[in-house]
Each structure stands twice: as C-alpha cells, then as structure tokens.
Batch of 2 targets.
Target 1
Amino acid sequence: MNDVIKAKTVEKKQPRDYRLLKHYDVMQVGGKSKLIYPLKDGETVIKYYVTDSELFQILHDIHLAIGHKGRDRMSKVVGLKYKNITRQEINLYLRLCELCQRNQKGKKGKILYFSSSLPQDVLKNIQTKEELEEIISRVEHSEVKEEVESVQEAME
C-alpha cells in the first residue's frame, strides 16, 4: 500500500510506478486506508483487495449471506466487490463447510470439515498450507495431531 501511495505522489514516475497505478489505488474507508482496484471513467463500483487476515471472514460472511450456495454462485458474488479472491480459495473454504459437505449429492470423497475437538478459533484463521503445517508442529504431542494431519492430507 505504501508503494502505491508513493507512486501517486512522486513527480518523476518510473515504469514500476505506472504498473502499480494501473492495478492499485488507495481509498480511505472508515478512517482506514484500503487497497482498491482503480476506478475507470464512469465506473462507480469499488473492488477491494482483501488481506490474508480478512479473507476467511469475508468468505464466511458471503457464504452465509447467500445461503450455502455453491462455488459458482459464491464466485459471482465475491467478484462483485473483491478483486483478489481466487476460485481456489473459495473451493478451500467450501470444503471446510460442514453443512455443505453433508449436503453434497453423490459425492464420495474426503470430508474436510473440522471436528469439534479441534480449536476452531485457531483453525478458522488458516489461510495457507504453511500455516496448517505450523499448527501441526505446535500440536505435535497433543491428541488432536491425527485430526490436524488428516486435514493436511485432504488439502494436498
């Protein structure tokens, strides 16, 4: 974000500055600076870039708001407001939804939702495979290690 602000204010722009400004802009929202996709002439819809720390909560809120609909519906709704949430991230989130896994018709595969013995407050913030591996290393001597490892295997 600081690079974008700097690129906007520098007098003599470098090629890197033009590339940054083509894809990013900064906007004040509720007293906070947010990274957005630049608006073109006549556009009024703002598309935000999501940080890793916001990703799970945004996907969770949208998923509940649309009534546990599938990947395509969720992708469409996410794409209306957010720029950098990928289909892969949506798929991973949907594989973590216990209700959606139970309601899958004719699908026989690994169910990836978390059992109640796992620390939900920690696991809901997992963004990457590396973060999951870090949690596994922390619980190495605990009784939930096998459950966490089964989640890791399912992610591979």
Note: The longest strand covers residues 25-29.
Target 2
Amino acid sequence: TDKAERSNALNVAIDSMCKKTRDLRRQLRKAIIDHISDSFLDTTVPLLVLIEAAKNGREKEIKEYAAIFREHTSRLVEVANLACSLSTNEDGMKIVQMAANHIETLCPQVINAALALAARPKSQVVKNNMEMYRSTWENHIRVLTEAVDDITSIDDFLAVSESHILEDVNRCIVALREQDAEGLERAAGAIRGRAARLAHVVAGEMDSYEPGAYTEGVMVHVQHLTRAVIPEFISQVNIALESLSKNTAHLFDDNQFVDISKKVYDTIHNIRCSVMMIRTPEELEDVSDVEDEQDARSRTSVQTEGRTDRAKMTQLPEAEKEKIAEQVADFKKVKSKLDAEIEIWDDTSNDIIVLAKRMCVIMMEMTDFTRGRGPLKHTADVINAAKMISESGSRMDVLARLIAEQCPDQSCKQDLLAYLEQIKLYSHQLKICSQVKAEIQNLGGELIMSAV
C-alpha cells in the first residue's frame, strides 16, 4: 500500500510537471509570435525618417534617428533568431539567419550613407548613394520578412493577430469616446498595418497551395478586407479625426464608426476561420494553446474520478465533430463581439458586466467539453454548468429590468425589454432542461431514470 501511495504521488507530480511545461511552452510561443507580429508590422519607417532628416541636412537629429534605426535593426535580428528557436525547418532557419546577418552588416553602412547625405544634401552623387542603400535595405528586409513568415506557423500568427486587432479596435472606440485624437490615430494606424500584414501573409500562404475552392474561399475574405473593409474603416477614421479637430465630436454619430470597426475584426476572424478549414482536430487543438481563452476558468466542475464523459467526446464520429466545430466557431464569434463590448466597461462596479463575463466563461467550458477538453469532466458537470447559467441569467434579468424602468427613452426601453424577454426564455429553458437531465444518471453505459 505504501509503495502504491508513493507511485501515485509520483504520477501526480509528473502530471503537474507536464501541465506546467505545456503552460510554459504556450506562453513562450505566444510571446515570440507577439514579437514577430509587432516587430515586422512596419519595417521601413525608421529608415524613411532617417533619410528624410538627412535630405534636409538636419545633422543634429541624425544621431538620434541613427540610434533608433540601429535599435530597430537589432530588434529585427533578435526576433528572427527567436523565430528560429520555434522552428524545426532547418533550411528555412538557414535563410532567416543569412538574411538577418545581411541586414546586421548593412545597418552601419546605411547610417554612414545618411550621415554623408546630411553633410552634403545637395550632392547628386551622395543622393544616389543613399537611394542605392535604401533599395538594398528594403530588398533584404523583404527577404528576411518572407523567410521568417516561412518558418512561422500561420495558425499561430493568425491567432495572435486576431487578438491584437481586437485590442486595437477596442482602443479605437475608447479613444473616440474620450475624444483622444492622437490615441485614435495611433490605434487606427496599428489596425491598418496589421490588416495589410495579415493579408500579405495569408496571400503568400495560399500561393503554396494548388488553386481550388479552398484558396478561392480564403482569398475572397482577404480581398473583401483589403478592397472594401479597410478603405471604409480609413474613411470613417478620417471623418472622426476631422470632427475631433473641429471640436464637433458631439455632432458625430459614432455608431457607424463602431460598426465598421467591428466589421474589421469580423473579417479578420473570417479569414482565420477560412484558413483553418482544412486543419485536423489535432492541429486545431495545438493552435488553441496560443489563445488566451483558456487563461481564466471558473469552478463549475465537480471533482470526479474514473473514465470521463469528456474523454468520450473525442471518440465521436467525424461528422459529429465537424458539426460541433461549426457550432463552436459560431459561439466564439459571438464571444469575441461580447469581449469587444464589455472591454470598454469597468466590471469592478458593474454587476451586469460581471454576470456577463461569468456566464461567458461557463459557456466556454461547456464548448470545451464538446471537444474533449476543459475542466468539465462528466455530463453531471455540464448539467451543473447549465443550471449556473440559468441562475445568472435570472439575476441579470432582475438587474437589467431595474435599469429599464428608469430609462427615459421609450425606444431604448422597449429594445432592452425585448432582449430581456429572450434572456428570460433561455434561462427558463436551461433551468427546465438541467432539472430533467439531472434525473438521468449514466450507469454502465445505459441511461436510466432515477425516478424509476
């Protein structure tokens, strides 16, 4: 018995170590992809600023801009090496390292060319020399960027990019509502840059496939982003900035701006979903490690032992898995919209926001159960989770009706009450369903009614 206890303790320790190692691996992957996403977002600005100062003969500013350019180069080289640490593609890693060495060697030469131009800004020979170095630098940066893209998982890149764009969209909306023109312009610029980078990466990925329904489906979303959504977004940003500059923000209807901002995120999400349509369940499982959705979990799971119903979900027929995957994808899309909305509110003093977040986390656990993962282990846990959502929904109905009663706008009041009727209906359905299902026990693979 003592030996069995020691063996059990060892197994627990091994499981714990495996979990911690997996968590560390996930954090490292996300951190590196974050670096890649940010560092290669706009690789030419430091060089263009340096050249512009040199053309105008601003010798005093050159040293400052040269230091920024040197730091920018070092960061690109560092991130390229980090990308290599994630990859198993030896040939690709060699190309990345070679390209990184080239820009590292080229950096001081570019700075010297800029210093020469600053000293003699009217010399055509010096101008031509600077132009040659600019062109050479941009070519090497293009090679490095493509080489890094080749050894980086596009699934990880898309997961991180989608997350960043959601953050940027939230920042845009908050900046507009706070009338922060500088913050709005900065966040909008980040969205524009990330969208262009994502479109370029996805288009490059599709070039590696034979043309067909899959590539056409992906490119439809990419072209919709670049040709329709982003131009419309930029137009709305310009209108908003003009309104802020003229102090007429109170006359500006921000609903259109919010709609197009969300459309940007939705289109990015659609691109990611279309790219991942051909992935296997194992590949989808691996990608989910990079996402943040698993960081916060509730305590809805009842502690149980033995073979779990959750594990059985992984043994479902492929047709069932595909159907579940579609429903999970739809839920995640709705969840992302909810995240974007509640991000702008302070949940420390808002009971409704706290309840909404709580219900969303429980629903995420239920969707995880359908994929054979997450904290819910047995059908009883899912039933308990449904009961908790029902109770939270009833509580939200009570709180929101208090707000509706005080609403002076009859149109808004009626809209809110209509939504509350839906919440009330769904909460009641969940309550009845959980009560009925709780009467059923899974015994030896056969379902029996406990009342019988």
Note: The first strand starts at residue 440 and ends at 443.
